[in-house]
Amino acid sequence: MLVLNLRDIANPSAGGAEQHLHALFRRLAARGHRITLYCGGYHGARRHETIDGIEIHRRGNRFTTAVWSTINYLRHRDDFDVIVDYTGQLHFLTPLYVRQPRIAVAMHVVGDVYRNDLPFPTGQLLAWWETFSLAHFYDKERFIAISQSTADELAAHGIQSGQIQLIHCGRHEPIPQPSVAKTSYPSLLYYGRLKRYKRVDMLLKALSEIRREIPEARLHVVGAGSELESLRRLAKDLGCGDAITFHGYLPDAERWDVVASCWVNVQPSLKEGWGLTVLEAAQCGVPTVASRVAGLRDAILEGETGELFDRADTGELVRKVTGLLRNSAQREALGARAREWSNSFSWDTASQELEQLIDTATSANPLAAPGEAGELGHSEIARRAPGAVGGRVDLIVDHEPQDDHRAQHEHHPAPVEAGSEPA
């Protein structure tokens, strides 16, 4: 099978999509499937490489990868029986030229991130193109969505609910086994990439207010990215530089020790597809206070594994954080439940569900239309994977926050393995 994505797991800019892809398809490769990945290159990268059984072919950059991938596919189209199209930051437009069964994977609809991170009018144009291509090229596809929020976004862009299926991500494996004690001082954690849409600047400004009430509070920032230097400058300007430690990217063992030692994780992101680092912190017994936005509201059971705040309300963020820092019993209860919740997800289960869907897609009746099976629930879709249009099948997976999650998480896993920079 052929997988199309902007990057691979070895790319220095790899994030959640690459971790998701690698966690699933290395398992399929281990079961005997031949997996080929077409993606972009990076400085110093080999043109061809095999990692964990996945044959990686790198060509092009952010702007030309889709072109090179299309050319390579057309040259070797008879080598593949199914095409998996990751539709995150780059639309390969496979419905226009692929006639084998297809699966579209949506981590999230980028939209707001384009508008927030890129200058006008570039961000607005890219957001428009995403909306246009989903509505006009991917409207008949079936998608795999990783959260209910993503499924809802797809539906808002014209994808019918019957085309959407939920397959959750899995937990980090091996399960972190940190052996460190909590810090002796009230400690906050930010764990993830340092990008504008992650809004770590909001957390730094909130820290100044938190320290007015809890002067000994400190913040540990674990992760790297384009905003690192501007955040260092902001910390200095706010006068809280001595209360913040920027750790950069850390290897697993060291990272888990830092994460597990902190009292509360904070995620103020503008949006996510799924809260990968929230669940990884949860595996270390650390509860999260996060913005009530797509992805994060799916990964947190509010009041059970963490707390949510209105994304525009810094005051609510401060209140939720200071409340947890002052209440050890509540903090420990949330952390214990968070660990239980996060470890209930499995990549093995997710890959088995994907494999079943691929098997159904490649053997589906090419004359069956998506609507013929009627409206099916998520578990029913997983069993039957309704038919294809024009000889192709596309899937959508979505996982909801609390209610949908609670009902289905035993069958549809959650976050992703870290193998590179955190999402």
List the main descriptive attributes of the protein structure presented here:
423 residues; alpha/beta; Rossmann fold; 2 domains; 8-stranded mixed β-sheet; 6-stranded parallel β-sheet; 14 strands; 14% strand; disordered C terminus
What does this 3D model show about the protein?
The model is unreliable at 365-423 (pLDDT under 50). The chain has 2 domains: 2-171 and 347-408, Rossmann fold (3-Layer(aba) Sandwich); 187-342, Glycogen Phosphorylase B (Rossmann fold), CATH 3.40.50. The protein has helices at residues 16-30, 65-76, 112-117, 122-136, 148-156, 200-213, 228-238, 252-261, 276-283, 296-299, 314-326, 328-342, 347-363, 378-384, 402-408, and strands spanning 2-4, 35-39, 48-51, 54-58, 83-86, 102-106, 143-145, 164-166, 187-191, 218-222, 244-248, 264-267, 288-291, 306-309. By secondary structure, it is of the alpha/beta class. It is globular. It is built from 15 helices and 14 strands. It starts with a strand and ends in a 15-residue tail after the last helix.
Class of the largest domain, according to the CATH hierarchy?
A: Alpha Beta
How would a textbook summarize the main sheet? 8 strands, mixed
* Secondary-structure arrangement, i.e. CATH architecture of the largest domain: 3-Layer(aba) Sandwich
Shape: globular
Number of strands: 14
Along the chain, the helix and strand elements come as EHEEEHEEHHEHEEHEHEHEHEHEHHHHH
The portion of residues assigned to helices is 25-40%
Physical arrangement of strands within the biggest beta sheet = 3-4-2-1-5-6-7-8
Percent strand: 5-15%
Provide the CATH topology of the largest domain: Rossmann fold
Oligomeric grouping of the chains: single chain
CATH superfamily of the largest domain: Glycogen Phosphorylase B
- Give the tally of structural domains: 2
Distance between the termini: 26 Å
Unreliable runs, pLDDT <50, ≥5 residues?
A: 365-423
What integer value in Å does the Rg equal? 21 Å
